Batch of 2 targets.
Target 1
Amino acid sequence: MNIRKYVYGIDLGGTTTKMGLFTTDGNLVEKWSIHTDSKQKGSNILDNIAASIIGNMKSHSLTAFDIQGAGIGVPGPVLDERYVIPCVNLNQWGGFDVAHELSRRIGTVVKVENDANLAALGEIWQGSAKGSQSLVFITLGTGVGGGIVMDNKIVSGKHGAGGEIGHMCVNHQSDRQCSCGNKGCLEQYASASGLVRSTLEALTQSDCPSSLRGISPLNAKVIFDHAKMNDDLSTQMVDQFSDSLGKAMAMVCCVCDPEVIIIGGGVSAAGHYLLDKVKTSFLRHAFPGCLNVKFRLAKLRNDAGIYGGAKLVLL
Amino acid sequence: MNIRKYVYGIDLGGTTTKMGLFTTDGNLVEKWSIHTDSKQKGSNILDNIAASIIGNMKSHSLTAFDIQGAGIGVPGPVLDERYVIPCVNLNQWGGFDVAHELSRRIGTVVKVENDANLAALGEIWQGSAKGSQSLVFITLGTGVGGGIVMDNKIVSGKHGAGGEIGHMCVNHQSDRQCSCGNKGCLEQYASASGLVRSTLEALTQSDCPSSLRGISPLNAKVIFDHAKMNDDLSTQMVDQFSDSLGKAMAMVCCVCDPEVIIIGGGVSAAGHYLLDKVKTSFLRHAFPGCLNVKFRLAKLRNDAGIYGGAKLVLL
């Protein structure tokens, strides 16, 4: 009997598709990426991924019998690990059984999940929550993504909306419109774009001195850097940002009470300076039973998705 | 080989302990209850339960070989389906491995869980979420309890705080102190006592006419009844109550995206009048992906806990 020793992880993004060949015991053998062709509603996406995977198999002299399968993360909700709801970031690509279509092309088992959910799974498999059974993963970039793993299983939800933490309302009085159609979502406060927006509003609405004045364009890194240099307004903005996250995490813990909370994404480059502020806010708001939840920074960075894709096949 | 056809469900409450003998295919054979003796830190609780179970086995000519086990719900957090953190409502009874101690006395497998979590499990097994894979159960009584089941498994959490929805903060500006130590918890607004408190405040702070004036003592049923008779202030209060629940459910769905939300507990006697208002608020606040979640009233009422206890053993 053939022992299937390898597994592929794929992370389909709006501009780039990352791929990795892993051993089933969790070692990354090779990683690479290809351009995501989202033209024509992404009609070439699966052909391109399949060609790249088949090419990689050949280069390692692997056949379909050596491969346990491929797990692919996509930027949108997924039902039953197969059906992808059309993705806004991929010109509405989706609306069909992606697992079936990719499996047909590469000749192995394929499972599909939301990309943030797979990043969560990757972090619990080989990242900073390794050895834990449950985590909440939150990714702070242009938006706020989330993934939840309980008892080593992804909480993807009945409608693929499990872990959509960025769309929890943290301010019911807010008039900040979110892309989801609601107002006051966490994403409007705890994302890079939310931070810039809050900061521009604060700079306009007061004439208090700030080392940020005159810097254009502002971005999240600059604001964090000036906060670290003790600029008052920047510090206030970063505190507000962290506080909205801390409050949201306190609410999330009343729902699923994870072992670990991991913060990743571009903004998490602010490191322990950010993590400590979020934790401080969390401790002020959390249900007493959850005060011992561990806070960690993500470890796998851009590779979390491909790790999670590989692990999905092995579950 | 002996086929174990029966299972016991036990619901340990502050004043009464409910018990039920079930067939393993989900039929309630007999139910009864005994007084909960919480004196001396509840030192007689397990002896009394064991005596009652053993008496019931005798009356049905059952031996330990006929019984698959017993599942018991307790009013507090539980770790690993066995260790009970001391219960406030039972004079600090707990702090030990209840599964082991009860198992030793009755000679069968015993599993332990939080009572609201078991009520959730009961409703998904034989109640109004029968046939579903995931639900959020919320029980509206003196306080607000919650239980979550995902993929037919209870989300009890790393610290036993899974489903503690009553302690999600729904008003960060609030100065309403909760028993948990925090302020603005859902329980302070969406419980019977929260509703009475809000109503008394509203009656005191204005002199607007209301059919509630002069009624003493007020309770949740009276306020709902007057709202149903179109008293303005009562309607406002019930709307506020339902809105805090609808908003909280919208946040919960961004975390775990269940198939069904079930509302139970004493206040749920207000029926579809309440359910419709909660759903209306939910639809106004929910993440679009979750708009199709089903809202239902609990069906098993006071028996949900014993059903859940029995099912816990069968998982």
Target 2
Amino acid sequence: MGKNLIVAQSGGPSVAINATLAGVIAAAQATADIGRIYGGIHGVEGIQAGKIVELTDFHEMEKLKATPAMALGSCRCKLPPVEDRDAPIYQNLKKVFRDYDIGYFLYIGGNDSMDTVCKLAHYFAGEPDAPIFLGLPKTIDNDLPLTDHTPGYGSAAKYLAITMREIIQDTAIYAVPAVTIVEVMGRNAGWLTLAAGMPRFAGGSKPDIIAIPEVPFDEEEFLRQVRETLEHSPNVVAAVSEGIRDRNGEYVGSSAKSGAVDTFGHAYLSGVGKYLEGLVKREIGCKVRSIELNLMQRCSSHLASLADIEESFALGKAGVAAALRGETGRMVALDRLSDSPYSVKLKTVAIEDVANLEQLVPEKWWDLQDPKAIEGIRDYILPLIQGEVPQFRNEYGFNEYISFME
Amino acid sequence: MGKNLIVAQSGGPSVAINATLAGVIAAAQATADIGRIYGGIHGVEGIQAGKIVELTDFHEMEKLKATPAMALGSCRCKLPPVEDRDAPIYQNLKKVFRDYDIGYFLYIGGNDSMDTVCKLAHYFAGEPDAPIFLGLPKTIDNDLPLTDHTPGYGSAAKYLAITMREIIQDTAIYAVPAVTIVEVMGRNAGWLTLAAGMPRFAGGSKPDIIAIPEVPFDEEEFLRQVRETLEHSPNVVAAVSEGIRDRNGEYVGSSAKSGAVDTFGHAYLSGVGKYLEGLVKREIGCKVRSIELNLMQRCSSHLASLADIEESFALGKAGVAAALRGETGRMVALDRLSDSPYSVKLKTVAIEDVANLEQLVPEKWWDLQDPKAIEGIRDYILPLIQGEVPQFRNEYGFNEYISFME
């Protein structure tokens, strides 16, 4: 019997991260080279405190794949520098790895979580009996480098494309001029906002305006576009990233800028959508509404993409295979071989090249009037948002989900 | 060949209102007693201006039933008092009815639209060759009297129940205390917020707090409930109606109350969710987030309830049948015969008893700790949110919708 494996989740949730967990468990169960399978509750924070469940005999894989958020819970925990060898969290982890005879540590997460894997690999390098440390990517933001895309992005993109299509339909019913501003997640990368643009890229005429953080945002130009659109259509729809910035790099609608304060004098936090709503109301004076898609972008499992879920599952299995090959300090990544028919290859990349770095929308896709850019974006996103995931519903018609946190 | 029929839509959209339109068209096509079938674009406002399309040969009923919002467009138009007999809009309508040989006028809408039907019936009463005027209810708010519920409510309720279930799942992953406040549509009636409570009523433990406009809202009591919940669960989830009011009838979080102004001195409009977010941040100091479900509550056709869509379709057909029986100045309504198995009967009611009146949540369902209230609400809502509606998707996987507005 081989060494034991521990798997955990960290960072923000998505609807695909449990599919990767299911892939890890399934692959680990299928090999005699791995003994027991453990799950760490609330990431490294929980593991170092001994919050561990056993998953060796868990078999409800399809239900786990259809469960949004994180069945093992999450944490947001930045490990101390590896030079701080006596830091309690490293000492605690060392003890847990020894107590549980851990040979493989697989961590599913985004940029910050890859920093954790990177530090652990460096910290334990040279230690006798050091476990294998592997990162499995997930983030709806799609902003990890060296991978074609990240698990979770496809499902969030599908939610955005379909919801935008419905919002456009909803706003088209009145003859009176109206502006609808939809705020999409993404502090630095515009990937999700491009997905919200899919109703236009796939043959429609809206959303009229699409603004991503990669391109400096000019309020005058925005107002000009709104006015111009109102000349031929009563309904203007805009999709904007929460992280759009002006030419000086300052967030559009940051509280410093809106200057809004409540009766207590506290700064009034409002998103860019609300800010632009106020701008249009003041400068153009027509009916205007802002919509923040909020958590629904990352938790709407009823709209999960089957392509995303199955790929996330495969990626979990590939993580176990890489671990068994002895790879450590690496992340599993996706290479796209072809858009249509869609085909990807799984590979691993050095975690140092990923941790704390961001992959932004490439400059060739910044001009959203350019037919070549539109074609490129559409061909990139379309295969990621296809297919429906079977739902597990109870007697009331509500989804049943898996949780290991109880 | 009989007289012609005109049908139009008015007020706010829903995902079921086109199913009622489909029912009207289908039933009108099936009888020799009706000649041509017309659709009025943008409600009475468009009809009086001659914006009319012919629907006699339209046959894509299933696609129309799966189209959210309003295929004929909408208006928000309050007719002048009927005593104002020379008002241009009445004169224009009279001419249009004569020009198009209209014998039947069917209007699909909510409270305000029923006011329009009521006024038209009164205005034309006694005129030679006056058309039949009938109202067909729809409103996601479920606040029309004399009908068990309104078409559109079931689909919005399903969106709310499923989305709340997913939000609860999303917020459960961290061990640090956090409060999530979900703001639901409903200025006066709490029907939609009760639907958001379904994950708890159907056997779960959350949302922890549910606040409807019918029950005066006490901020101190709210904070007490949040603190109490935090003692045994790190994640508090609250569902609150946008229209909750304090003991003096003042909207909670009205701008007058928050006093927030921007740099220009304009009042900063924020919903009750944002207001309560600020309150929790200030008074409790933990992580807090508010979510406004916004238009998605009324436009998410991908989550439409089949029960709602088929019932809306049947209601459209019943409207034509009532018109052919010569009923005028009435609205088609639903009588519930049984919760399980679910069974309803279609009837008509006098429009005067409906127009401008509201049906609020009954007092017996105000105490959401009372098991009898919970059972009553659950049995009321459950049959309305069942079943999936077939989707029409194009080559890109996007829904194809019907519009008569082009």
